Amino acid sequence: MMKKIVFLGCGSMGEAILGGMLAAGVSPQSVVVTVRRPERATELAARHGVTAMASNEEAAANVEAVEGASVVILAVKPVGVTAMCREVADALDSNAVVISVAAAVSLAQMEAALRPGQPVVRSMPNTPLKVGRGVVALSAGSSVDEHHLAAAHEVFDGSGVVLDVPEDQQNAVSAISGSGPAYAFYLAEAMAAAAEDFGLSPEVAQVLARETVAGAGIMLAEPGANAGELRRAVTSPKGTTEQAIASFDKDGLPGLIKAGTKAAAARAAQITEELSAAN
Q1: E-only strand ranges, the chain
Q2: What tens digit of pLDDT does each residue of 193-204 get?
Q3: Burial zone of 233 (CB within 10 Å; 0-12 exposed, 13-18 middle, 19+ buried)
Q4: What stretches in the chain show pLDDT beneath 70?
Q5: Is 11 in the same domain as 122?
Q6: Which residues span the domain enclosing 119?
């Protein structure tokens, strides 16, 4: 069981993780959050019952917050992760596990900004964490043991599915699940546009596309569900769906999706290099 948990930064994704933790039974009295603006600190304290501090009011808020913490979650933007690590490094307990939720920031970059031997975990969460249907991939640093990794799992267990992957697979994870919700939304946009081409009103088109994609997602989330099997169950021989799938295949849709994910993964690797050069 985690003791003191600290969020350094708490934007949309950080608050989604925080909400999932609290819903899973973590006591708000064990959580400290730091943000820049006093208004945001007041908002988080009122909404979740946690202790919230504003660095614009108290310059040492981040350092004070991490003292005695067993888990520290870095929920700042990628460009600010290593600077935050350096700011709090000397105040961290040597056994505290530091978890980053920022894309493209490597374990090596974080470990170099912290004291030697500090346990570090890199995570790649996605936005459906906000509705408790997220997926998170964790990669453990060189000083992480099974207890540190278990604590990292506990952070995210209330918000979705948690997987362990080698760090060299994190860019692929980012391209599939990190960016993936946008692909589903893009599909819904395209379906709605197609519906309007048939003469349906924009309002009806939006409902049809939105509820179809959302409903299919719920079916896919059922235990043991398989995307290929579900698709084949809807695709009757010589039926309308079969014609649509054949058209998608002819136009190379699977190849386009594969190319897009490769482009996303390549960009993630490029961002890592840019952040490394900047720090």
Answers
A1: 5-8, 31-35, 51-54, 71-74, 97-100, 120-124, 134-140, 160-164
A2: 999 999 999 999
A3: exposed
A4: 1-2
A5: yes
A6: 5-165
